[in-house]
Amino acid sequence: MNETTNLIEDNKYVELKYQVIDSKSGAVLTEVEFPLGYVHGVNEVLAPAVMAELEGKAQGDIIEVPIDCNKLYGPRDESLVISDSLDNVPEEYQAIGTAILMENLQGKTKSFLVTRIEGSMITFDANNPLCGREVIFKLNILLVRDATDDEIEAGGKVDPGPDVDEGLTVPIN
Description:
Helices cover 10% and strands 37% of the residues. The strands form two sheets. Strands 1, 2, 3, 4 and 9 form a five-stranded antiparallel β-sheet that branches. A four-stranded antiparallel β-sheet has the order 5-8-7-6, with no helix packed on it. It has helices spanning 48-54, 69-73, 149-154, and strands spanning 12-22, 28-31, 36-39, 62-68, 81-85, 99-103, 109-118, 121-125, 134-146. It contains three helices and nine strands.
């Protein structure tokens, strides 16, 4: 078998797991526990800088990609942080980590995350959670193989779904 067949390149189906680690503290900020599958060169499932580093890597490789999130998401914008009284917010949105889609007076929408509840006040933040951080994407490449034509078209793994007989009729009493 030619060794280049297991290298990540366009039209290869890739499965990987990854962690996003804060460069300063070493804390794991995000971790993908279930393999993420995609077709390389067809869709970008991660930031372009991370996708570029995957090119030419092999099944079994573990790579670390440092990313300055200021370049990726821009600097933190404090005007995107809003505090309000808990009395003005429906109870189902009163939990840290809850994502809420809000609309401004011009009809534009933006996703906000509940980041703090203190006393009778709640804080929402529309900045990307990685904004202002330097992080390391640690990627564990689990599988690299040729993608099928269906996977290339879909950009990822295609599950056949249940086997359903189209001609089946069910009598109704």
